[in-house]
Amino acid sequence: QEALILSLRRERRLGVKQLRNELIRQHDLTLSLDTIHPTLVRSGEQVLKRPRRWRKGERRYSRPIPGTASRWTSVRIRPGVYQYTAIDDCSRYKVLDVYSRATGANTLDFLERVIEEMPFPIQRIQTDRGREFFAEA
Q: How far apart are CA 69 and CA 45, in angstroms?
């Protein structure tokens, strides 16, 4: 069993789960992961590194014109401290403010601040659907 595990590992560079699947499929040998892994460790096999796949030049949530969409969220930093954030999808222009509570009134106050600070008009607001964005002020 040990020789079979090591030969599959060296020939095909399979991980522990893939080794188990190959042993079951090709050799009708059912072994647990807790049997295969110590065998690899004892023999001094190196941990396989996963290849990183980079997405070149791709940017999530990007818009061609500033102000067409801005993303809003509120985050609880600690009890009694809530951070409101608005980020424009095109320019990545950010507006941040801190409030003591996440309420509808504070959301309206933040909306006024965003309108004042953003250098372009806002056409659409996307939220994380938090209750503070749907509450009545």
A: 51
pTM: 0.56
Domain span including residue 122: 70-133
Q: Which residues pair with 98 in a beta bridge?
A: 83
Look at residue 129 and tell me if it is in a domain. yes
| Counted domains in the chain | 2
Is 96 in contact with 129 (CB distance < 8 Å)? no
51-79: per-residue pLDDT in tens? 777 776 666 677 888 888 889 999 999 99
At 61, is the secondary structure helix, strand, or coil? Answer: coil
Q: What is the CATH number of the domain that holds 104?
A: 3.30.420.10
**Secondary structure class of 122 (helix, strand, coil):** coil
Q: How far is CA 56 from the centre of its chain?
A: 17
